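Exercise 3.2. Students should predict the tertiary structure of the chain below and write it as structure tokens, then compare their answer with the key that follows.

Predict this chain's 3D structure.
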Amino acid sequence: MGIEIERKFRIDDDGWRRQVGGDSQAIRQFYLAVRDGFSLRVRILDKARAVMTLKTGAGLSRGEYEYEIPLDEARELEASRIGRTVEKRRYRADLGVEGLVVEVDVFEGALAPLVLAEIELPAVDHAVDLPDWLGPEVTGEGAYSNSSLALAEAPPLPPQS
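Answer key:
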């Protein structure tokens, strides 16, 4: 089984932009099944390839199984989605140590202006110096999971300044 160990943060300002490169990836994702501790999603990446992902568990450490699927089949499966299709643009910020990267997701459409960041770690207890531009940690907060964002009537919004 693949294991994903990931911390998630809300970002409330544009300070992250000074550390990311200019490259980004367009992500269009939707869910085919979601229940407590399980989700099945499909992502279309840059309109060029598609990946199906099964996730189990919740919180910091989860089971993750990922499979590339034909792009035309992913497009057909979208008709069977539950909830909304989530569209976002992903940027990457290299932390410069141990190959660790922060992925910054800028949500579009109904989920704008939400911005979340994720960092995958090699172990649950792995210590890492986090960039100062990360906002509050939301790891394990259900409202910020991608599946919840796809199914929610209204997205969680950043605080007003």
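Discussion points: The chain has one domain: 2-151. DSSP finds two helices and eight strands in the chain.
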